[in-house]
């Protein structure tokens, strides 16, 4: 068995059983103790599991099962969100047709926006108001208003987005992992995010570092379906990915 294949088996066993001892792994994989210890050390360095004395345990992940009110989410990680927003705002050109997803980091993007000649569509009522006050040309999709997120969502919204073709889009997420992708708690919002993302030539997910290794019930995009802009990469396993931009403190 090749090392990569063996390590996949180790990781699968640890995830399935929550923890495994070196002795258990040597028996299951018919490998030497030194080989298993070496594999565990490498998987630990990659951030795929926790190496402990005599074995390994699964990495604890957070689960975000319900959405929070906009005011509550807005108060979290304000400095990190601002750094992400400043960088993202600089990507918008005067000839762009821009989609801006509902969310608190995308809200900061509008605050940082200096290019007002582009055309914007958003499914957020609050975002639309801010853009209009900046003098921007704003389009809203059809659909149902979800009060807690102040977003227009649902199948009607998703269907209406199919006729638009955006040059660039910016999305929020409740969680992201390299295996579950970008996730959100509610199917209606996931449907709209998925539909809008498909209509964007270039896609960015604005994701502060607290969202990594968090999982919500519904995946709206695969991990490599969009570029990620984050404040910093905490987990070393994500440093190998070229589609993540880290916007550290100056």
In short:
By secondary structure, the chain is α/β, with parallel strands linked by helices.
Write up what this structure looks like.
The chain is α/β, with parallel strands linked by helices. It folds into 2 domains: 3-60, Orthogonal Bundle (Arc Repressor Mutant, subunit A); 63-246, Rossmann fold (3-Layer(aba) Sandwich). It has 9 helices and 17 strands. It has helices at residues 3-17, 22-29, 33-45, 70-74, 78-89, 104-111, 125-133, 155-161, 187-198; strands at residues 19-21, 50-52, 55-57, 62-63, 97-100, 119-122, 137-139, 144-146, 151-153, 166-171, 175-177, 181-184, 200-206, 214-215, 218-221, 227-230, 244-246. It has a 7-stranded parallel beta sheet, sandwiched between helices. A 3-stranded antiparallel beta sheet has the order 1-3-2. Strands 11-12-15 form a 3-stranded antiparallel beta sheet. β6 (119-122), α7 (125-133) and β7 form a beta-alpha-beta unit. The chain is elongated. The protein starts with a helix and ends with a strand. The mean pLDDT is 90.
